[in-house]
Specification:
six-stranded mixed beta sheet, single chain, five-stranded mixed beta sheet, 17 helices
Length: 469
């Protein structure tokens, strides 16, 4: 392995936001909140309409609130009511707590008509046991044209050919680096296996760090979470952590520092441009980010291999589709499934898709964003006409870099990444806690790598079986 130097940048993990404290609000409490109903007001008064309940762990989501209000204002047949689940914060993760509550509600025959995951999506919950397959509703709806959306993204979220969750917007978790370090002969968006990534890193000309988050625990977490689909089959519940590939990931991660350090003269951009940092993780939500990384690396020839894929699955691409913004399912026990589909479909109109925070599921809306980024706009400041800065590259401690437009090549790379993403981020926070705990024992030199891999295999297998069965 390369000799590392003790200069690192602090990595800040941003978790999903959740509301405050413990169980479903009771019917009396919900009705009490509705005591301020204004008769005839379509936003508060159901006025004889069928009430659809949507449960969420994040009631403050602006897009959800706007869609509920618009739907209630315009729909004469259905009225949507939001049920906010609140976490008591006593134990576990809020996402895990929400999933447990929701599962119990649905299996008991109670529960809501729909769920909006609020950042808590897990394939173990969005499965055929609890949720409706959305494809039949799409096929039966003569006003819905599935081919106008990114069908590869829909397929990425399938389980056994069924779609139980709809991400109304998405992002792609991927990684990039300089071609001269990663290998200029590889395709711009060509994916790689774990062994190929390690070999490229060890043979690179200038790389001293794999990532800026150059501690063993953070490198392991980044790579493992990015390629968790290599080790968990969410269709069957089968796991494969006790494999040479996973052991290789543990051992490779163990070659880095125990903890993060940072020097006073550290330069984010210098580390990229010199090739010192091998890979940069990117949460891709905009074509501007393709240009931003290119410029941050010194206007370099870039490669976007993404996260390592399982052996023999390079055609799946290295990008991972992840939910970003309202993400919805129809609950299996809903008595108003057609109405629930009408509400979910309201997130997919061109008008709404243009406003999503991430990448629009509607292809034409995404192309509009690309064309907007390609177009140079002008403004007049103090009597001088100049190109308008539409995007800024921000790095702590360094001057912002303004951009007026992306290039056609940037746009082509963005399209290529989006259209060739075929996997989704099948993460579950409870599973992550198990993996992190056992990997930590290995990094502390307390256990043999094979023993750790076997323990993770056994514990995660039990956890997923409990979730899915």
């Amino acid at each position: 392995m390369k000799k590392n130097i003790c200069v690192l940048i602090v990595f800040i993990l941003i978790g999903a936001a959740f509301a405050g404290c413990g169980t479903e609000k009771g019917e009396a409490e919900i009705e009490g909140e509705a005591s301020g109903i204004e008769p005839g007001n379509p936003l508060t008064d159901p006025a004889g309409r069928t009430v659809l309940k949507v449960a969420t762990s994040y009631v403050s989501d602006r897009q959800l609130t706007e869609r509920v209000n618009t739907f209630n204002r315009n729909n004469e047949e259905y009225f949507v009511e939001v049920i906010g689940y609140e976490w008591d914060g006593m134990e576990g993760h809020p996402a895990d707590s929400f999933a447990t509550w929701l599962t119990m509600q649905i299996l008991s025959g109670e529960g809501p008509d729909m769920v909006e995951y609020g950042g808590t999506y897990s394939p173990a919950v969005a499965s055929g046991k609890l949720m409706e397959n959305l494809y039949p509703y799409m096929e039966a709806d003569e006003n819905f044209h599935r081919e106008t959306y990114y069908e590869n993204i829909l397929r990425a979220f399938e389980l056994e050919g069924c779609l139980y969750v709809l991400p109304t917007g998405f992002r792609i978790n991927t990684m990039c680096g300089k071609a001269e370090e990663l290998g200029s002969k590889r395709g711009v968006t060509e994916s790689w296996e774990i062994g190929e990534m390690i070999e490229a890193y060890e043979n690179s000309t200038n790389a001293e760090w794999l990532l800026m988050n150059n501690s063993k625990s953070l490198i392991f977490w980044e790579l493992c979470s990015g390629c968790i689909g290599n080790y968990v089959d969410w269709e069957t519940g089968e796991c494969s952590f006790n494999t040479p590939e996973f052991e290789e990931l543990l051992e490779f991660s163990d070659t880095f520092f125990d903890r993060l350090l940072i020097s006073n003269d550290f330069s984010f951009r210098a580390s990229l441009q010199s090739g010192q940092t091998f890979l940069q993780p990117v949460l891709l939500v905009s074509p501007w980010q393709i240009a931003s990384e290119r410029i941050s690396f010194g206007d370099a020839d870039m490669r976007w291999p993404g996260y390592p894929v399982a052996d023999g699955e390079k055609e799946m691409g290295g990008g991972i589709a992840d939910v970003y913004g309202p993400t919805l399912s129809i609950c299996a026990n809903s008595r108003n499934k057609e109405g629930a589909w009408e509400f979910i479909k309201s997130f997919l109109t061109p008008e709404v898709q243009r406003e999503v925070r991430g990448i629009p599921l509607l292809k034409s809306a995404c192309e509009e964003k690309i064309q907007e980024a390609l177009t140079v706009e002008f403004e007049t400041v103090d009597g001088v006409r100049r190109e308008k800065i539409k995007y800024e590259i921000i790095a702590e401690g360094e001057d912002p870099i303004g951009m007026t437009a992306i290039t056609e090549k940037d746009a082509e790379i963005f399209r290529d990444i989006v259209e060739n993403t075929h996997r989704s981020n099948g993460w579950d926070y409870g599973m992550g806690d198990v993996i992190s705990e056992e990997a930590g024992a290995f990094f502390e030199k307390g256990k043999d790598v094979s023993a750790v891999a076997e323990t993770i295999q056994n514990r995660v297998s039990v956890y997923i079986a409990e979730r899915m069965n």
